[in-house]
Batch of 2 targets.
Target 1
Amino acid sequence: MDRGKLKEIIKDYEGKRQALLPCLHYIQKKHGYINEKVMSFLAKELGIPRVDIYGVVSFYSMFSLQPQGKYVIRVCASLSCYLKGSNNILNTLKEVLGIDAGETTPDGKFTIEEVSCLGLCDKAPAMMINGKDYINLTSDKVKDIIESYKKEKES
Ligand code: FES
């Protein structure tokens, strides 16, 4: 669980509470999710109630409580994207990958997440895969994009 690294991060912050987000970012990036053990450890080290840490983890879409796939697909569900057909984009992804939003494919490769505005509203509908932007999406574009990721993983 990287206790040593977490303690290092905590040491860098004078006000211990400020270390919470950097610690969560570190764990999320390294392990792809934040589990119970990590939350309990941080609660003890930072003197923050565990329920508050849970609140932070569940509030921010960049943190996950479940193991995620190699490729995390974040589909915007906010107004501009919704008006431009984000539902179709999401349905195409569900159909192509055979999973629902919030789920990971059985092979552990893809996770679909429905998120709020990605800041790409003028190019709606939009999604991100591992931080890479995909804009002005159509169902066909989404199928091609997923196909390219599937090929990438095979090579
Ligand atoms: S509403 Fe979808 S990116 Fe802003």
Target 2
Amino acid sequence: MLRWACPCAECRGEGYGTVGRLERATELPASELELEAVTLTGRYALQLGFKSGHSTGIYTFRYLRSLCPCADCRRSGAGA
Ligand SMILES: [Zn+2]
Ligand SMILES: [Zn+2]
């Protein structure tokens, strides 16, 4: 789920009409989906590294919260 939500430029497209990888892909190999490393980036985000070596996604806590499906987060609204 987190892999599919990767906010990096490669996955999302970088503007200029570029299509991100995740917008084209309908499925990803298992190695892409397996989380390998989590690095704290400053005080506001986590950098997630996947087994495939893909580690350019910076997930801010606000963004992670907005993805969280639990009742608490849903109730408080995205990014609260
Ligand atoms: Zn990415
Ligand atoms: Zn939650």
